[in-house]
Every structure is written in C-alpha cells, then in structure tokens.
Structures
1.
Amino acid sequence: MVEIAILGFGVVGGGAAEVLTENKKLIASHCGDEIHIKYILDLREFSDHPLGDRVIHDFDIILQDPEVKIVLEMMGGSHPAYDYSKAALLSGKSVVTSNKEVVSTFGVELLQLAKEKGVSYLFEASVGGGIPIIRPMQTDLSSNKILAVSGILNGTTNYILTKMKDEGAEFSDALKEAQRLGYAEANPAADVEGIDAARKITILAALAFGKLQDPKTVPTTGITKITKEHSAVAERFGCALKLIGHTEEIDGKLLSFVQPCLVPSSNPISHVDGVFNGILVDADMLGRSFFYGAGAGKLPTASAVVADVIQIAKSLQKPPKCPIWKAAEARDLAPIDSYVCRRVYVVEGCHKCAEKALAAFGSNRVEFFDGGFFALLTPAISGEEADKAFAKTGLSAKFVLPVLD
Amino acid sequence: MVEIAILGFGVVGGGAAEVLTENKKLIASHCGDEIHIKYILDLREFSDHPLGDRVIHDFDIILQDPEVKIVLEMMGGSHPAYDYSKAALLSGKSVVTSNKEVVSTFGVELLQLAKEKGVSYLFEASVGGGIPIIRPMQTDLSSNKILAVSGILNGTTNYILTKMKDEGAEFSDALKEAQRLGYAEANPAADVEGIDAARKITILAALAFGKLQDPKTVPTTGITKITKEHSAVAERFGCALKLIGHTEEIDGKLLSFVQPCLVPSSNPISHVDGVFNGILVDADMLGRSFFYGAGAGKLPTASAVVADVIQIAKSLQKPPKCPIWKAAEARDLAPIDSYVCRRVYVVEGCHKCAEKALAAFGSNRVEFFDGGFFALLTPAISGEEADKAFAKTGLSAKFVLPVLD
C-alpha cells in the first residue's frame, strides 16, 4: 500500500481522488501496489463524501506521518501551496502538483530540494492539463536539443477566440459565454491577460533550456483588445488568430513571450479550437512534434496528476529524477525585439500609403479592407528591423501581429 | 561508459549513430554516463566512415562481449532481426528496436524474455517514427483505461493521398512521385496495401489492451483502389480521406482494422498532411489526446531510438519495466462488422434510387455527383446493420467509406 495525501479537495484534488478510485485496479497493476488516500487536507468538511472520513484540517498531521510517501498539492495559488510543498519535500516526501503558479515561481528551489532529499517533484498537470508534454520532453525528446516550443496554453482564451472567429462575436460577449459555461472565472484577468499562459511558457522554457524566468518578466499581451478587425485580417491571410506562448534560445539567451499571433494552416496549432490546448516542439533531430488534448478540466488534469503519482509509486525506493533548473537572470534574457518572424502590419490609409509600406519592407503582399485600412505581410525579420523599416514610412500602425510559421 | 552495439548500419542505424555523435554531451548529461558505440554489425564495410573501425560481421562477438549492455536492432525484416534480438535478451542485454515487423510478430515472446532476464525491450520508434507515443501511452496515460486508438500510421500513403487531394493526381502518378522522392520503395506493397499500418496498429492495440494480434489477421484495405471519385466524395462531405489504423475493444474483444476512412475536420487526424503521422488516443479520464510528427525518416526515427537507449542507460541496474502481452487468439477478436460508425455509401443511380437508400437507413444526407452517382451518409450503426439495411434497397454500392468521427 502506498499512502498518499491530497492537499485541496477542489476540482483537481477531487478529480485525482475520482481517478484513483475509478481506476484503482488498473493503477495498482501499474504500480505493483495499491495507492491509498490517507488524508485529504481542506478547510471545508465533506461529511457526505465517501472519502469524507479522510478529511483533516491540520497539515502537520500529514507532515509528521512517515507512512505518507506522496503529497498531491492541488491547492492553487502561491501560499500556502509553496510552503506545504517545501515542507513535504524537506520531510522526504515526493510532491505532485498541478500548480503552475508555484512551479513557475518556486520551481528552481523545489526541484533542488527534491534532488537533495532523493524524492520527486513532478508537475505534468501544470502545463497543458492532461496533455502529455512535460514527461515526453524529458524522456522521448531527451536525444534532441530543443530549438523552440510554441503553443496554445490556455483553454479559456482559445475558447473565446474560437467563438469570436466562428460566430463573429465581440470579445466581451464571448467572455460572458465562457463565464456562463464555467470556462472562465468571474475575475478572468489571469486568463485573458495572458498571465496563466506566461506561467506555463516559463515552465516549458525551463524544461527546454534549463533556465526558469520569472513569469512577470515575460513580455505578455492578452486578448482583451482583439476585435473583429483582427479576425478579418487573420481570415484574409488564411491564418487562425491564436494566443501563443512561445520560447526559444537566441545566441544562448532565452526569448519567451505570450501574445496573439497569426498561425497559418500548415502549423498544427492553427487547428486547435475551443477549450483544447496544443503544443508544438521544435527539436534538432525529431523536427516538429505536436501534442494536443484537454488543457484543463477535472478528470483530464487529474489524469496527468495520477500518472505522476504512478511514476513515483512504482519506484518508491528510487523515484524519478527531476530536472535541475537555474533561475534566469536579466543577462540570460534576449530582448523581445530580437525575435525573427513574418509580421502583419495593419495600417489605416490608402493605396499610396500601402505602396510606401511595401517598399519599406521589400514586401509584395498587401490586403485592403473595408473601413479604409490595409494589412501588409513583411518578410521574416527581427522586431527591431521591422520597427526601423516601418518608422521610415511615417505611417502609424493600428496593430501588428507576428506570424507563427 | 555504457557500451552499445548497433545491428544494421542502414538509414535508421546510421541515424542512431549520428544522433549519438551529434548530441553526445547532451545525451551523457541525461544518462549520467557516456554512451559508446562499441560495435556496428553489418554485411558491408564502411572503411571511409568515421565509425568504420567499429564495423564487424560476426554477431557472436557482440553476444559474447559482457561489456555491451544495449543492442540496437536496426536491421529490418524478421530474420535474423528476431533471432539476434532474442539471443541478445537471453544473454542479459537490453534491446532497442525500430522494427515493427519483429515487434508485431514476436512481441509477446520477446517482452516475456526481457522480463525474465530483468532487461528492457523498447520499441518507441516502431510506431510513428520519432513521435512520442509508445512511452506516453505507458506512462502519461497509465491512469486511464484506453478506449480506442486511431491514426495515420504510414507516411508514404499519407503523402500519396495528400498529393491526390491537393493536385487531383491519380494514384499511380502520386505513387511514382513518392518513389522519385524516396518516400516509397521500388516495391511499395507493404505501404500501399496497408501492411505496414496493420503491423503498427497491432502494436498500439497491444499497448492499449494487452493482447497482440497477428497483423496478418487484421482486416486491411490499402489505397491502391482510391480514385478521384473518393476524393470528390470526401471533399463534398467536408472530410479528408485518410488511411486509418484503428483499434478498440468491443465487449472485451479486440477490433482492429486498417482502411481508408473519411475524417471530418473536427478530428485532428484530418489535418495531418504529407509524410507526417498523427495518432489519436481516446482514454476514459483524459478524453482525446493527439500526437503528431515525423512518422519516418533517418533522424526523427533515430531520435526515438536514442531516447529509448537513454532510458535504459540512465538506469542500467534497473532498466525500465516493459509491458507483458498475451497473444490474441481468434476468440479474443471481435468481427469487423461489429464496428459502429457513420458510413458513406457511394452508389450509381438516380434520385429515385437515392430516396430508396435514404429510407432504408433513416438518413437525410445525400449528395449527387456528375457521372450519375450519389453518396449517402448513414447514422452511426454497425457494419452488420448497415449491410442489412443496404441489402433491402436492391442497389449495389461502388464503394463504402467509414467515417472516423
């Protein structure tokens, strides 16, 4: 019997308990032993729940019980989630988490601690919900240098953008619908401002390049200013408009961002609609591989949590080795305007202005729209070069969208 | 230093050597030790190759060298690949293979042997080339019951079908182009008749359901009879025409097939074009997840091979546990006509015939084509029910295509 404790009996914690109960036999067959939920830590009582008798309110009981080998941190937020995770690791327990806030903020320290204590700190569910991405990057892609990772990392915003595209909805209406369906929270800022995606891209970047950037320093643009004009431009260029988290290394420096991008249909990310997530990994030997699935939701997220639990439980004496990350400092970061890509400049103006802009970029692709504006596609150049070229025209852009090829 | 031997210095064997050489440091950092190619077994000499001095012609040298811990079977074909793999396992060496023919034919025995000897038999590269699918199914999805697996498992046929769709090419011309580009072999039967895909679907089925079916008994239809009529029907129904390998369990019995299917755009498989592969896994907790990438090619396939090598090398004392499969017997197999799906019947005839057919199926979707034929979409029913309903009409079908929803 492998004893575990669940911290937080909300959506994901409850889901983990459900998966462990529903697929108990199957899971035991993988572990070679049964997994038993000994404690559930929550502020609330769950007296009517079949597992209600496991509910406790004092974390120290878990900490001081040497039988508990694995702690599932499913609380969300930074505190006390981080503090409890740290305490559990310090006392020699492995920790499994779905908490991207804690991983992206305290990952360096917690992974180091796990190593020192010979336990695991696993976080498959922190990015892409149930989609296998963390472990595949560490195992299946371990023969590769990772070149870049890009993806739709937030289902809420992807639902909203899909709705705006398919139904011509305005942002505010699509958001309301997402809230009605439970896809978006009452305070949707973390999703629609791109904060959630920024946390996730720092985790993927750390997996790929070994350095964890403070998510607050990731250049991040959400989708609150997306209008029908953006959708019209995307459609005309045969692209999908998606909120993209992207990371790559430029001359050994980390370049990560979150922002709405145009994604051509040749990129599998462009076909990810609704609340789904999709992550594209570019690697030197494998080339492009793509991982798609439910990026959130009770059971999908719990599926990844329990997969982590199984990996630890099947090898309790020698739990899976975790990566060691460095904290990325300012000098480890490349300036955002060094990012090279094609770009679409959307500009108010007539054919004559468009000709000026085409000449400035040496481009030959421009589209005109009702409402007196045009959209110009640049060749692949850095943001710095693009700004310089555009400045020469004396025009001012309504907005600029990078193209994720 | 972890000593390994490569059997067969062709495309994949050469690719494995290249990956191990190119990313030597990175790979050593994952393993905690350097991987060293001690022997390369091939009939040919490679005197000008940097690794030419490792080339030997006698397998017994490898077998009798206790320093060699991992054998990479990259020979292709059943014999002597199977015999050498067995001998290596029997002598306590782990084996990594990309050989779907051997895994699908002898997997039950070789996995059992690996277990008995406390070594690994890993085969990530045998399905989907470099795409992570075997290990994710065994680890990330281990908290789930797998319900079904479907995919484009053969890049050659997908290249041909994409060419036929995009350029209106005939099968024979698209095949010639694939041969010219090196995507299809001079004798393309194993690809275009679906034999290769059948081998791969038996491996995925065994991973999902624990039973390995003889690939020769998998109902298999290739793409040699696909015409422009098929493409026209697919287009009219908003579907892509894809050669699909599919497996599921019906009442505890295995149902696997390979055949051209219509795939609606809501299914991510429909967007997989060219030589790429894509595999969709349906699981009880996670729902649908999808894995996409290079299904063949030197370095992508080698990427997966070397990932397997790393997994073994980093834990030589206790190499990764492998699954144990049973051989599927006749009584373990569900009849193919128990498969439930929507179907498109393509029938020569006029509006009156179409009305008769619509009534027989209780369907309301029919499309008429130049050339005097129509295509009717049935509701989701079993093949047996569909045949029965259609027989009542007295009509005869030009062809029938299942819809993979």
2.
Amino acid sequence: MAIKIGILGYGNLGKGVECAIRQNDDMELFGVFTRREPSELKTLTEGVKVFKAEESVKYKNDIDVMVICGGSATDLPRLTPEYAKDFNVIDSFDTHARIPEHFANVDAAAKAGGKIAMISVGWDPGMFSLNRAYANAILPDGADYTFWGKGVSQGHSDAIRRIEGVCDARQYTIPIDKALEAVRKGENPELSTREKHRRECFVVVKEGADKARIEKEIVTMPNYFADYDTSVHFISQEELDRDHKGIPHGGFVIRSGVTGLKKENRHIIEYSLKLDSNPEFTSSVLLAYARAAYRMNKEGMKGCKTVFDVAPVYLMKEDPDFMRAHML
Amino acid sequence: MAIKIGILGYGNLGKGVECAIRQNDDMELFGVFTRREPSELKTLTEGVKVFKAEESVKYKNDIDVMVICGGSATDLPRLTPEYAKDFNVIDSFDTHARIPEHFANVDAAAKAGGKIAMISVGWDPGMFSLNRAYANAILPDGADYTFWGKGVSQGHSDAIRRIEGVCDARQYTIPIDKALEAVRKGENPELSTREKHRRECFVVVKEGADKARIEKEIVTMPNYFADYDTSVHFISQEELDRDHKGIPHGGFVIRSGVTGLKKENRHIIEYSLKLDSNPEFTSSVLLAYARAAYRMNKEGMKGCKTVFDVAPVYLMKEDPDFMRAHML
C-alpha cells in the first residue's frame, strides 16, 4: 500500500514534493493544503486535490506523512509543532542556531501525539550534516570545511532588491577554487570569509538609476557582502529572465584528518552536490525521510528526529535483503 | 567508562585499530589476540597485552567489542560467526557476492548469543555503500558510478608476484579522468571496464629474467589485466621500497539523477576518498562502528547488522544535543 503524502504549503518546495512523489512508486499524493483559496490554486500536475490548510485535521487518518513546506523564519517554528500533534511530519527548518529550540518544541508535540516529526531535512542542514557527522566519527583528528555554491542565495538576492533603484537581482555564491584545492591537498588552511567564497550579482535597475551608488551599496552592505569580494553586473530584465531563471545550488563538505602511530597518514573525505534545482533536490530528500518517518512510526517510534537518528535502511524503498545483495 | 576493544589478528588492519584507539578517548585497548605465539608478537605501542586467540572466550565479559581483523577469503567466514556467539563483533568482510551468505551465518550466531555483529564495515563495502544507498533513496531516477583509486590493489600485486621471474610488484588502479569528467557533467555515459580504470604496475625481476615475456604475461592476464590498459615499469627493489611502500587508496561514488515535472533538472551527488593508508582508514571506520555495536547492544539490540542498519547517532562520541547544536 502506497504511503500517502500531504503537502502543506505550495511554493517551490511544495511543487518539488508534488513532482518527486511521481518518481517514488511506493508513494501517492493525498492532496495539497494551502492558506490560499483552494479553487484559485493551480497545481503543476492534473487531478491533485487542494484543501484549506485549516481543514487538514479532518484528514489525519488518511495521510501517512505531512510534508511541511514553509519558511524557517516564521512558518515552521509555528506549523511543525502544531501539525506534529496529529500527523507524522517533516520539515526543512534551516536556521542552524535555532535548531535546539525547534527540536524541543516539536519533540514535545510529537511525543504527545505519538507521531514522528523529522526536522531540518534537506541538504544543509541534512545531507551535509550527515557527512560532517560520519567523517568526524571516522577521523576524530581533523578539520572540517564546508563550501557552498555555485548557487543562488535567495536571501542575498532579496537584500539587493531592497536597494533603491533596483528592480530585480540574482546573487550567486561561488566557492574559491584556490581554497578548495588547498583543503583537498590536506594543507588544512585557516580560511577567512573572503578566502572561501566570492559573490557575483546580476542586477536590473530602473531607468536613470545611479549605478555607481547601487554598486557601492551592494559591495559595502554589512553581513551580506562587505566581507566578500563581490562583483556586480548590470543587465536587462530580459537577460535576467533568460539567463538566470534557474535555482541551482550545491557545495562541498570536506574533512581532512590523520591516522597512524605518529599521525603520519592523511585522509580526505569529500562530499559534494551540484544541483540544477535547489528546491527540487530538497524536496527529494524530504520524501526519502518521509518514507523513514512513516516506517519508524509504524514500528512504534515517536518524537522529534533528525537525519542523525535515522538508520539508512528506513530511507530505501528496496528491502534489506536486496540492499545487502546489491548495494553493500 | 571506556569501551573495551579486543583485536583479533595482528596484521595491517589490527595495527590500524591499535593506533586508532589512541585517537578515541572513549575507548581503550583490552588486548590483542593472535594465532601466533604471544611472546613473539611485538606490538606497535607499549604495554599492550597479547593473548592466544583460543583463550579469548575467557575474557568475554571483559571485552565490549571484538574487532576481527582477518581476510575475507577464509578467515572471516569462519571467525565472525564463531566469535559472534560470545562477543559483540565487527568485521570488514568485503567479498561482495558472498555477503548474503555471511550475513545469514553471522546473524544466527549473534542472535543466539544476544550480541551485535557488524559485518562488511570499511569503505567499500562500507562508506561507499552508504553513499550509494543515500543517493539512490534521494534520486530514484539516476545512474550510479563507482571508481576506485588511485590506489594499491593487493590482489593484483599478488597476481604479478606469482609470475615466474618476478621478485616483487606493486599495482595501482587509476580512474580515468575523462570518464570521471563525463559522469560529473551529467552525461550518463555507458563505460566499459577499459574506459573506467587503467592499471599501472611496478615490477622487480630476477637478474636475467625475460622482461618482454613478463610484461606480456601481465597485460594479457585474464580478469586481472586483459580488459584494461596496463602499463608495466621495471624497477629495482630499492626503488620499489623507496617509492612504493605506502598503501594508498580511495575512489569516487557518484550518482547522477534527475527531478522535475519533465525530469528537466539534473543533480550530481559525489562522495570521494583520498587515503594515504587504506588499512588505517578502514580501521578507523571499524572503530566508529564498534562504538555503535556496543551502544546498540546495550539498548537490547542483537543480530547481524550492516552500515545500512546503523543510525549515525550511534557512531558519534558526542551526545545528540551537542550534535544537533553544532553539527546539524
């Protein structure tokens, strides 16, 4: 019997989940829940039922896992604990500093409801966290490096758009090759912010806007750009729409560590992602962990879980005998 | 209280475990068990107790996990089930085709003894298997690629040494850059054996040996070399000892998959290892999973497990609160 998935929130992430369900034949989409007027929401695929978010609890026995597709700033801290009382849930909460607080809130709700709630699932936090954890467990003497990109940072693009005279913008975070190579060679460099990443901005301005002022406002913006080498390119809206409509991202997690009697042998563990669509990849990770949430809850487990708590066997559609014979 | 580790078998792997325990302050070495005469065995570090292998059962209550450091061809199929009756055990059984059979034998023994037995732990099988599994769970539509090297293949080096006139040899398996690049670009190439790896051999021959015949015997050797582009370099024993005494290895696991409504977005997940010492890295993986075996058994779990069955939280020395706050 297929695992029935509910989608709460229909932005890029929700659409990604809708598409990814079609690639997992052990799952089916129960429906989309939205705060908008359901009749006005047009789904990507045909025949998807759309419900009002506030009516979701009526379907609590029809949905195996609710995928909560909201923002980390305000949506998820409120929604995940609320829904964890009635549903197995999964979210992609990515405000690293607030994870312990979110975990505690969600854990209490999920335990009260007898449900599994997986939080902070995606690639960072998520697959990158897993790789940091495995690599640290294997090589206790070492250093961790995380590089992001090349990819679009939504937050930085938004920050540029708020500058007066700017119509639209797209910002790419790009790891600096020289730094990556030094890490890969085992040189264990100490890298400043500026040495790890650079930022490239494509900006559309209003007619007659002062480009010199805008460029200066961008490159000197504290927190966002001031600590980086930032390049600014002014382009037309047509060029932005044509050349920069994708949402690519990715990055690298590297651990460089030593073993041996005199710590004379070096080992480099590297994990990297190159993603054409950041939200679609995140959605695909969410679904794999939705499968795990469903199975773990069926075995009687409950409470809040992260990727650290999930044995890989729960993620895989194939049965353990097959996995041992073909994938081990 | 420290986790007490026993080492059964004192080759490169056992020595690696001995060294790695010193890097994990939650572990201590109980002793080394050997089939040799204990008084004749000189350990790398001072003060290590050495026991006869056949007396190990006397210490079953003193040892939390026995790390079985033997060969996959004949040692492990016999030793792991035998020891799993009395100890939590861990091995690096790497004959992929015989894993289901080994699993069944070990599982029966471990369940009878109420112990955890982890098999096929290392990097392939092991970390590479994990990465294949995670990547497949995330991207169901895709292709898997595994490349090995650059590294020393012990089996291929041995095969060369058996040729008449050869004194010593070292064989390197080397992934072919062009193939790797095509995979990374998402071209999903179909690659023949010859297109994926090449083989490089450094050979020391007896005085007056027929080098042309030896080279021909190597490059035409079925299974080992005939399907590869193989280069042979004749060098002196001094050069071999000076330039080729290390046991480096590594490799790449890549999954190239697609998502989206029309499967229009491509994603590349890559995991790679660059290891100065193959046995020391394997030993380090074994110890992380020894920690997991000990903890899982303490929680009442028993039977045979592989890397697929172990939630990452069991591998990590740090407690889950710390991990969520700092590594997620």
